[in-house]
Design brief:
By secondary structure, the chain is an all-alpha fold. The chain has a single domain, classed as Orthogonal Bundle (434 Repressor (Amino-terminal Domain)), CATH 1.10.260. α2 packs across α3. The radius of gyration is 16 Å and the shape is globular. The N and C termini lie far apart (48 Å). The relative contact order is 0.14.
Length: 104
């Protein structure tokens, strides 16, 4: 648990970190800069940087809105929070392809 935080506050902080990580992954997968994402959100690059850093001044609502603007569904947003710390599909794919690689 986070030092000095109650269970509820720790859960919110963990959700913020999970959503921030999902936002960064989705932005990079779409090959967008922070500046371009900021323009799509009507915000600033520095705000997007704070969002991706899970800054406590960033609301969960703004993180969710940014994910939705990038095409995330409600289910994907929920999974981002629920699966925090679990391997991502890209990681699993990478491992699977490594195992099936033929040596010659």
């Amino acid at each position: 648990m986070f030092r000095g935080l109650g269970a509820a506050e720790a859960a919110v902080a963990e959700a913020r970190r999970a959503l921030a990580a999902a936002l960064r992954r989705r932005r990079l997968a779409r090959e967008l800069t922070q500046v371009r994402l900021a323009a799509l959100l009507g915000s600033s690059q520095s705000r997007v940087a704070k969002m991706e850093a899970a800054d406590e001044t960033v609301s969960l609502g703004l993180l969710v809105r940014a994910l939705v603007v990038l095409g995330a569904t409600r289910g994907e947003v929920g999974r981002a929070v629920a699966l925090r710390g679990a391997p991502t599909p890209a990681t699993r794919r990478g491992r699977r392809s490594h195992r099936t690689e033929r040596r010659g």
